[in-house]
From TrEMBL:
Source organism, top-level taxon: Eukaryota
Catalytic site: H131
GO cellular component: nucleus
Binding positions (Zn(2+)): C139, C144, C200, C203
Keywords: Metal-binding, NAD, Transferase, Zinc
InterPro entries the record matches: DHS-like_NAD/FAD-binding_dom (IPR029035), NAD-dep_sirtuin_deacylases (IPR050134), Sirtuin (IPR003000), Sirtuin_cat_small_dom_sf (IPR026591), Sirtuin_class_III (IPR027546), Ssirtuin_cat_dom (IPR026590)
CDD domains reported in the protein's UniProt record: SIRT5_Af1_CobB (cd01412)
Transmembrane segments: none
Name of protein: DHS-like NAD/FAD-binding domain-containing protein
Family: Belongs to the sirtuin family. Class I subfamily.
Residue span, Deacetylase sirtuin-type domain: 8-316
Molecular function as annotated in GO: histone deacetylase activity, NAD-dependent; metal ion binding; NAD+ binding; protein-malonyllysine demalonylase activity; protein-succinyllysine desuccinylase activity
Amino acid sequence: MAASARPSVVPQKDLESFQEHLDKSTRILALIGAGLSASSGLPTFRGAGGLWRTHDATQLATPEAFGRDPGLVWQFYSYRRHMALKAKPNPAHYALAELARKKEDFITLSQNVDGLSPRAKHPPDQLKLLHGSLFDVKCSDFFCNYVESNNYTDPIVPALAIPTDESDPTTTSALAARELDISDINVDLPELTFSHLPRCPKCKRGLLRPGVVWFGEQLPAKVMRDIEEWMVGGDKIDLIMVIGTSARVYPAAGYVDAARAKGARVAIVNMDKNDVPASGLYKGDWFFEGDAAQIMPEILKGVIGELGDMPDAAEE
Ligand SMILES: *[C@@H]1O[C@H](CO)[C@@H](O)[C@H](O)[C@H]1NC(C)=O
Ligand SMILES: [Zn+2]
C-alpha cells in the first residue's frame, strides 16, 4: 500500500462483501439527507444562526408566511442560500455523482435543498430532489409555471444582500455578522417591499419564490412520479444506500421497505450507530458507522476509482 493511502475507516470484511455486491448490482438506490451536508460544515435547517436564531424556521417555511411577509421569508432564504454557497460539496457528493456516471440505473433521492449534489455535477436525471432546491426559483403566481434551476446568484437581488452593521463596517461584530455566526449583533433586517424582491420574468406579475417544498405543500409531482416509475420499472432492486439520514422516518423508512421487498440489500452510512431501520438490520445488510465524506469514496472505490478533480458548478 502506498504511503499516501488513507487508512481504511471501515472493517475490511464489510468493505469486501459490499464491494463485491456493488460490483454486480445494476439497479441501485441512494437516499441522502442532512448528515451528508453536515460533513460539508453546513448547519441543519433548524440550526440557522445569526439573526435567524430568534425566528422559528418552521414558521418561515410556509406558503402563508410568504403570502404575509415575502420580504422576511426571502431574507431567510437569502441567508440560507448564502450559507449553502459558502459550503462546498464533499467527497461523498462527488463519489455518488461518479457512481451515477458508472451505473446508469442508479438514482439518488435527496432530502437536501442545499445544492451540493448539483454543484458536484451529479447527473441531473439521476438526482431526485424530494424537497426542491434553494437554488431553484419559481413563480409564486398560481397560474404561472415559470421555474429556473441552479441559479447561484448571491444575493439574488441587491436588496437581499446579508445585512451588516453599516455604521462601522470594520468592527468585529460587523465582520462576524457578515459571516453570520453570531446572534448578538446590532443590525435590523430592512423592511422589504414588493419592489425589492425578485419578479417573474415570464408573467411579470408574480414574485419569484424559493423552489423548496414548504410545510403544508406536496412533494414535487414530477419527482414523485419519476421515483414511482423507477421503483416499478424492473423486477428487482439490488441495493439501497441510506446515507446521512435516519432510516426510521418517512420517507426513508418507506423506501427502505419498498426496496427490500424487491430484494435489495441495505447499506447504511451514518454517524449514529443506533440509527437503524425500524424493521432492524437483516442478515446481509451493512452498517458503516462514521463520516460519509470519508466512507463513501472508500466503499465505492471499486467502481468509481480514486476521486479526481472536484469541480464546483457554482464557481463556473
Ligand atoms: C437569478 O435570478 C435573478 C432574479 O430573477 C436574476 O436576476 C439573475 O440573473 C439569475 N441568475 C442567473 C445566473 O441566471
Ligand atoms: Zn410568473
